[in-house]
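Consider the tokenized backbone below.
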């Protein structure tokens, strides 16, 4: 079963930036799509951004223009660059991979806290 190693979370002031990293234990070419989801306290998990194997990206409206998802095939890594962070971005961020057969796997999550 694939392991997803996430890193890059932490505490940042409003307006600051963080970059999340997700490294799967198998080739990213095995996945139809990779994405980042987030779950704030007391709320349901929601999509933040997703990138397909073809490079197409989708963002939830509240992060458009601030977050950028990208992939480095040579490093077998997916990134989420988060700029202009707001307190409402505070959440646990989860890496997700979706296989071509529809199956998916989740990472353990990384905490992002935006606070002054």
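A designed sequence for it:
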């Amino acid at each position: 079963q694939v392991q997803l190693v996430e890193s890059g979370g932490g505490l940042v002031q409003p307006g600051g930036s963080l970059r999340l990293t997700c490294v799967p234990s198998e080739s990213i070419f095995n996945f139809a799509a990779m994405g980042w989801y987030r779950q704030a306290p007391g709320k349901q998990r929601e999509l933040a951004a997703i990138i397909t194997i073809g490079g197409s990206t989708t963002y939830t409206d509240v992060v458009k223009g601030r977050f950028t998802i990208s992939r480095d095939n040579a490093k077998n890594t997916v990134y989420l660059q988060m700029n202009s962070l707001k307190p409402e971005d505070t959440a646990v961020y989860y890496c997700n991979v979706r296989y071509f057969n529809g199956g998916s796997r989740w990472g353990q999550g990384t905490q992002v806290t935006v606070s002054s």
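The chain has a mean pLDDT of 96.
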